[in-house]
Recover the amino acids of this structure.
């Protein structure tokens, strides 16, 4: 969606983005936002989880028995036995790794590969059906492809599907799918899909999907399956997600770029300066700018402009990555697509698959009630909520808060 021309003069003027930080109200807001932790501690992620009972809440003895502790974890990787029936050309592996065969992939095997193959990158976790992101972490793991090559695939390898522990109950199975090309090669600018065992320098706990989970960096959270136990290699081409029959976007499931308000007051005094603050989820399209707009809620908007393309949008200031973003977490060995090894600085900001915060200011609003909206503009100039304004491909609606201005 191209940026629309203004229909009317702005209700309020933020001034150029490079100047708004001079406003004392904005300076205070920037100081407050800059003090917020960038990385989300394991225990502070918002949880979207499945299982009855939840696997990580099983007794310790049971977790040991079913492979939910590092010392007993096993990953099976084998060809789909249904390929012959479904495709007539089955996938073939010279070295399938299974529990029955006595050669399932262990946590010790994973750590041995990690000595030379480990990667670390920042990723925001977001649910395609929820509004706010769940949290952001520095994830560490071994690329899935380096483990899959150990099975020595021979032919007819088109995709993989994978699942985690589900209480040995078929009704609780949660499975996701990826094309082989995404697993074996990273398209330009893409980070690798990894078997993840650490977050923020700590071993993954059970709540976060440990001992090992999948992490798909550019995708919504459901693709990053927790409590990973099986990877099935197949010649089948269609998506094999549990969500396939639930009308979700199951193929690429790319993270969208979108803006949200954060820490906004519900009421202010007329003529008082106001700090407008929020965060942005940076998806696969990157982020060029965040904009906001105030509208009296007794003034209707034309029905033929449902995405507010012609609104008098105002630019905000996007805050840089805080100097203390890592806290006490060691940041050696960060992925070179995200960070320059020589300087330790981000190669781009805002950084894809992460988040940033933004701020603006206004004053001079007359008494009344206002609807404040914000939107993101990606690097191609597309304005939220386009492209893909459909809920099942990820939330993208323009965020709105109500502000009451009192005399």
């Amino acid at each position: 969606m191209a940026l629309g021309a203004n229909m009317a003069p702005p209700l309020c003027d933020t001034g150029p983005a490079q100047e708004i930080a001079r406003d004392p109200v904005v300076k205070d807001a920037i100081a407050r936002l800059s003090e917020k932790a960038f990385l989300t501690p394991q225990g502070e992620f918002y949880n979207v989880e499945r299982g009855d009972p939840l696997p990580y809440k099983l007794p310790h003895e049971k977790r040991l028995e079913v492979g939910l502790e590092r010392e007993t974890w096993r990953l099976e990787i084998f060809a789909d036995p249904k390929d012959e029936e479904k495709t007539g050309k089955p996938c073939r592996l010279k070295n399938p790794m299974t529990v029955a065969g006595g050669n399932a992939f262990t946590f010790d095997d994973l750590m041995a590969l990690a000595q030379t193959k480990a990667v670390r990158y920042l990723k925001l976790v977001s649910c395609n059906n929820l509004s706010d992101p769940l949290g952001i972490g520095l994830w560490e793991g071994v690329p899935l492809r380096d483990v899959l090559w150990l099975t020595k695939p021979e032919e007819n390898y088109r995709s993989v599907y994978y699942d985690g522990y589900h209480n040995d109950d078929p009704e609780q199975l949660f499975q996701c799918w990826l094309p082989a090309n995404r697993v074996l090669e990273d398209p330009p600018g893409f980070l690798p899909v990894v078997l993840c065992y650490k977050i923020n320098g700590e071993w993954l706990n059970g709540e976060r999907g440990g001992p090992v989970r999948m992490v798909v960096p550019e995708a919504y959270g459901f693709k990053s399956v927790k409590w990973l136990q099986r990877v099935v290699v197949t010649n089948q081409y269609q998506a094999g997600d549990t969500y396939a029959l639930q009308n979700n976007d199951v193929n690429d499931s790319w993270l969208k770029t979108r803006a949200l308000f954060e820490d906004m007051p519900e009421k202010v005094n007329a003529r008082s300066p106001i700090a407008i603050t929020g965060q942005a989820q940076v998806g696969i399209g990157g982020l060029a700018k965040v904009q906001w707009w105030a509208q009296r809620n007794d003034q209707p908007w034309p029905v033929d402009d449902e995405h507010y393309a012609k609104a008098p949008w105002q630019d905000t200031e996007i805050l840089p990555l805080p100097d203390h973003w890592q806290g006490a977490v060691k940041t050696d060995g960060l992925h070179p697509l995200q960070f320059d090894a020589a300087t330790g600085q981000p190669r781009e900001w805002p950084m894809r698959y992460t988040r940033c915060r933004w701020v603006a200011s206004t004053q001079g609003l007359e008494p009344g009630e206002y609807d404040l909206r914000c939107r993101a503009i990606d690097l191609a100039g597309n304005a939220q909520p386009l492209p893909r304004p459909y809920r099942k491909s990820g939330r993208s609606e323009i965020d709105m808060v109500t502000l009451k201005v009192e005399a």
